[in-house]
Specification:
The protein has 88 residues and is mainly α. It has 3 helices and no strands. 60% of the residues lie in helices and 0% in strands.
Length: 88
């Protein structure tokens, strides 16, 4: 199992998780969350903020996390309602 140990990698993962959860609460689709996460990770890669090992671990953990439906809950606390509402 991949784990993050670098403090900056942990902070970036938490920031990415928080942002994706907020987007999910505004009824963004899983595909849109993936695009956001990919952009965030790409920016980190381009700026070389993390060492290559920490970057790879962050990418692997983010990929697993974003694919796991239990990572998100709906605005009402119910994971089943997460992507069911229409956008305004």
């Amino acid at each position: 199992m991949t784990s993050l140990q670098h403090p900056d990698a942990i902070r970036h993962f938490q920031s990415l998780c928080d942002a994706c959860q907020e987007l999910a609460h505004r009824f963004h689709s899983p595909g849109e969350l993936r695009i956001y996460a990919d952009g965030y990770i790409h920016a980190l890669r381009r700026t070389a903020v993390l060492d290559p090992i920490s970057q790879r671990r962050l990418e692997e953990l983010t990929d697993r996390w974003i694919r796991d439906p239990s990572s998100f809950v709906g605005p009402d606390g119910d994971p089943r309602s997460l992507y069911e509402s229409e956008r305004y």
